[in-house]
Amino acid sequence: MGSLSNQGVSKMKEIVLTTAPQNGLQGVLNVPGDKSISHRALLIGAISQGKTIINHFLKSQDCLHTLQALRQLGVEISEKNDQMIVAGKGIDHLQPANQPLDMGNSGTTTRLLLGLLAGRTFNTELQGDASLSRRPMKRVSEPLQKMGAAIKLTSTGTLPAIIQGKKLWGKRISLEIASAQVKSAVIFAALQADGPTTIIEKLPTRNHTELMLQQFGAEVVTAVDQRTITVLPHPHLRGQLVQVPGDPSSAAFFMAAATLVPNSAIVLKNISLNPTRIGFLRILQKMGGKVSVLKQANVPETYGDIKVESAKLHAIELTAADIPAVIDELPLVALLAASAVGTSKITGAAELRVKETDRIATVTAELHKLGIKITELPDGMIITGSSNWQPRAYQLDSHGDHRIGMMLAVAALCVHQSLTLQQADAVNISYPNFFTDLQQLLGQSKQVRL
Ligand code: S3P
């Protein structure tokens, strides 16, 4: 368990997608743990003193790459079902890895480790798969270089990266891209610097790193503008119990499915309601979705149960300020827009072009196959809704992108023809049990094997 070799990394699996039953999606689902929080709990646990217990950890390929990398850096991590126990080494005691660290497909692992390893006394090499090796890393190396880091990338600013451990300085860093990964890399570097660091974000992004570091005892202060963060170096971090809430980005697939398929009513349990992550919930409500939050608790992360029922939707316009809180759910917003009344427009979302795939291109290509009127913009999409899609092709493709694959499985519920999905195994990146959980809500307990 927990190794990458037994997580079904096999390629190119094609599956037949399910169409919706008469009585829609029904039931209660515990969605797997949040991906962003699972990564951070391992990383912060590793640099704290003493034991960190992580409950409801997400055992997906991306998070297992973080786990494996930390083990190579000398951190002991044991596991029991979805509980991880990290024997923290303290902030200055990671050990050099004797081989390059394999980042797989995980942008979060890569970018957070670039920051966490920049101020060490040793060098580290990071490598990634073909998709990750196309993604931009200068956005991280450049701000870190201002703090004294030495990170060597390829001539195109991509992996593989060689991090030469250096002494880091506390600085004032203005970030040009709204990215929680970049911000988190700078925060991790700031913990190792010689003085305080202030980070100014372009727009507020998910704040799990800040909240978790505070829980572990660091001084990380966010100003009232929500985009200026001050980090004091060399905190005394102590191991903690981390209860990972359900991933709102995974929950969003079922929220969309229950909305689009008539006669549905589902409850998703213990989902993160962190204000920086609920863009999709808010957008669905604005489009006319029937969504209610049933219960809330908020220590240190807010979470609750979400009830979703079928609804008829109307079009929406999103601009740059809306994007960070819904960045991973934009393929699903495009799908909702495809069945809404009216024409929707998403702009200010050029970041989609540098995700696991160019999601503006892959969403447009795949929804076009389903007969949806969708046009690419340089930084977004225009989508005209219809209640009667006329598919032009029956073989859909995830393009190796987990979120595209899951969005297409939801889209298929609204189509009467039989559709297949190629590279369906991409779901293992963030949600290995996705198809089984979908079948459960569809009342079809058939096991789906990839
Ligand atoms: C993440 C931040 C987001 C998101 C990614 C996870 C994180 O990326 O798309 O899936 O855990 O910090 P950016 O911050 O680069 O937009």
Automatic annotation (TrEMBL):
The record places the active site at D328
Main localization (coarse): cytoplasm
Kindly state one GO CC term assigned in the UniProt record.
cytoplasm
Q: Molecular function terms in GO for this entry?
A: 3-phosphoshikimate 1-carboxyvinyltransferase activity
Q: Write out the catalysed reaction.
A: 3-phosphoshikimate + phosphoenolpyruvate = 5-O-(1-carboxyvinyl)-3-phosphoshikimate + phosphate
Q: Which domain of life is it from?
A: Bacteria
Q: Which residues form a coiled coil?
A: none
Q: Which UniProt keywords apply?
A: Amino-acid biosynthesis, Aromatic amino acid biosynthesis, Cytoplasm, Transferase
Among PROSITE patterns, the record links this protein to: EPSP_SYNTHASE_1 (PS00104), EPSP_SYNTHASE_2 (PS00885)
- Location in or out of the cell: Cytoplasm
| Residues in Enolpyruvate transferase domain copies | 21-438
Associated pathway: Metabolic intermediate biosynthesis; chorismate biosynthesis; chorismate from D-erythrose 4-phosphate and phosphoenolpyruvate: step 6/7
Where does the chain bind phosphoenolpyruvate?
K35, G107, R135, Q181, R359, R403
Q: Give one GO biological process term.
A: aromatic amino acid family biosynthetic process
Task: State its Enzyme Commission number(s).
Answer: 2.5.1.19
Give the enzyme class: transferase
Residues that, per the record, bind 3-phosphoshikimate: K35, S36, R40, S179, Q181, D328, K355
Instruction: Read off the Pfam families from this record.
Output: EPSP_synthase
Q: Assembly state and interactors?
A: Monomer.
Q: What does this protein do?
A: Catalyzes the transfer of the enolpyruvyl moiety of phosphoenolpyruvate (PEP) to the 5-hydroxyl of shikimate-3-phosphate (S3P) to produce enolpyruvyl shikimate-3-phosphate and inorganic phosphate.
Protein family: Belongs to the EPSP synthase family.
Q: What is this protein called?
A: 3-phosphoshikimate 1-carboxyvinyltransferase
Name of the coding gene: aroA
